[in-house]
């Protein structure tokens, strides 16, 4: 069966839509359906702060239950930071701000044993094991093994239609099948993996059922993929001894990478493509000169990052932006508003890819900066390049309602309806 036929057979459109519907159940605990524009209240908080007591959701009018980094944590005090200087300093300071909520002495849950929730030396030792697979010069490895074939097959399956909702038919499967492919997970199993990593722990059995046998098979015979990198990796402990990762450690890594790799980039692809469709002069310029796409993607990440807020646990009493914050508090770091700080960017609310490139917090910063950022950039640019090449006259569907961005802790479009000339 060709990849394109396999995609058509196994990627059930209704299930895909359900799993990637920001307004549906899957995203409910991340406030996916929240419709208010978060930027005006965020700007007000930065101007009247830059640090406030409270949680970003309720501070901007979202009062639903939320499960995200640093949430819900009902027994801790909560604070939020909104300007670039504070947010940037906090993510670089792992002495005063920790990524771990783990209470010493208690058993670590699977998600707690991932690098996202580790600190200091331990974080460095484990992150270093996979970092070589994510450096810029590995982008071609990702593109040639998994991204390009998925992008081409998906376009093959829509090209005759002349119209599509790119969000679900095109963007959602690309990062999902890329990260699943790198873990040896087949196309028929990919949607089960997505369901498992978004189930707030409920789908762990199915996750183990799929990933455990792959670990065993790669231990017996490694292949040219990420799961083989993990099973062969040797961690150096504090006392200098070296040891291959245990199955549980590989599973912890796998869970984080499969969740983060499949959950973010499709939304950022939609945000970037919508920005181009709504700024047709930029779509034209990119069509003429593909080297401009890199700047467009970075500007999209600055202007509208799909994950606007992450959190840290406060280790020592600190004073930030004139506000005293006690040890034990959760500090929410609002990357999205930091990225619109007028102290760093002129006309920060405008999408303007011609502005000088400077670092932003769309992928975070400091030791936890997104490990998958070069993969994400490669996925977005391969996808948009292919759309421009293969769908002539690509434009927003004038007959469809204008798509709106929604979401509190995870943000994106519910649809990206387009037409092209057949
Ligand atoms: C546009 C897409 C993406 C965005 C906006 C994004 C955003 C982020 C952010 C803001 C962080 C930092 C979290 C913190 O400081 O606590 C992060 C961490 C991380 N991301 Fe991404 N991400 C994206 C794509 C990916 C992809 C494709 C992968 C995997 C292939 C990935 C894997 C990770 C991992 C493993 C971490 C934890 C790193 C660590 O703690 O050392 N991300 N991401």
What is the strand and helix layout of this fold?
Blueprint: H1 3-10, H2 13-19, H3 39-47, E1 51-53, H4 56-59, E2 78-81, H5 84-92, E3 97-98, H6 120-130, H7 139-158, E4 163-165, H8 166-171, H9 173-182, H10 187-197, H11 204-220, H12 226-232, E5 234-236, E6 242-244, H13 247-263, H14 265-278, H15 280-288, H16 293-303, E7 309-314, E8 318-320, E9 323-325, E10 330-334, H17 335-338, H18 373-390, E11 395-396, E12 405-406, E13 412-413, E14 417-419
Parallel strand pairs: 2-10
Antiparallel strand pairs: 1-2, 3-7, 4-14, 5-6, 7-10, 8-9, 11-14, 12-13
Helix pairs in contact: 1-7, 7-9, 7-18, 9-10, 9-13, 10-11, 11-12, 11-13, 14-16, 14-18
The structure holds protoporphyrin IX containing FE.
Name of the level-1 CATH class: Mainly Alpha
Please name the CATH topology.
Cytochrome p450
Shape-level CATH architecture? Orthogonal Bundle
Low-confidence stretches: none
Query: CATH superfamily membership, which one?
Result: Cytochrome P450
Fraction of helical residues: 40-55%
Ends: how far apart? Answer: 26 Å
Which ligands does the model contain, each kind named once? protoporphyrin IX containing FE
The spatial strand order of the largest sheet comes to 1-2-10-7-3
Q: Based on Cα principal axes, name the global outline.
A: globular
> Structural class from helices and strands?
alpha+beta
Beta-sheet strand percentage? 5-15%
Mean pLDDT: 94
Largest sheet: 5 strands, mixed
The number of helical elements comes to: 18
Q: What value does the Rg take, in angstroms?
A: 21 Å
How many strand segments? 14
Number of domains: 1
